[in-house]
What does this fold into?
Amino acid sequence: MCGRFVYLEWDEVLDVIQRIVMHTPFEPRPEWPAGRRIARPGSVIPVISAEDENLAPVDLRWGIPAPWDEGKTLFNTRIETALGQKDGIWSDAIRHGRCIVPTWGFFEPSATETTLSPRTGRPVKRQYEFSLPEGPTLLAGVRVQEAFSVVTTEPNASVAPIHDRMPVVLRQDEARQWLDGDFAALSDRGGVVLDVKAEPLPKPPDDRQTSLF
It folds into this structure.
């Protein structure tokens, strides 16, 4: 499941909206450190919503409170489940609360590889970062009031070797289709090619001995 992504600031989201509306190419990913702002469940970030057929940024919290458990949040939504529900939280959200989460890339944990956590030193699943090569990586989302969830689907050839699910990644020309078109057709992401980059392994400890003489 998608549990981290690199999010865009408000002014960057405004630029993305303008380029979607004007059908002009996205700008490439920035190289400066500010381009590495990491969102996790509970983060409040700007997402793209369709307001009266106009696209606008809105600040939402990542993670929708579970109706059956106040202490649980739902930060991923299986598109198969949402499309198959006749009623319930995802049924209404997929039909009336679709939104777009602009990112510079998302992370998925490897099913087989582990590495040492730089914080605890304990083994953890190695993370891989996925992104579209041409600019911002748009993720399909659904909104419930002031919160959102990232919509996931079956993995394509880029993600399948690493993980068994992936976000519904939208190319620039598919943004409007997700918001006000045949959104169900976007569940198949087989034709989307993603850049894949493994998080670097921690440096091995320096075991060289310093002589006192």
About this structure: Residues 207-213 have pLDDT under 50 and may be disordered.
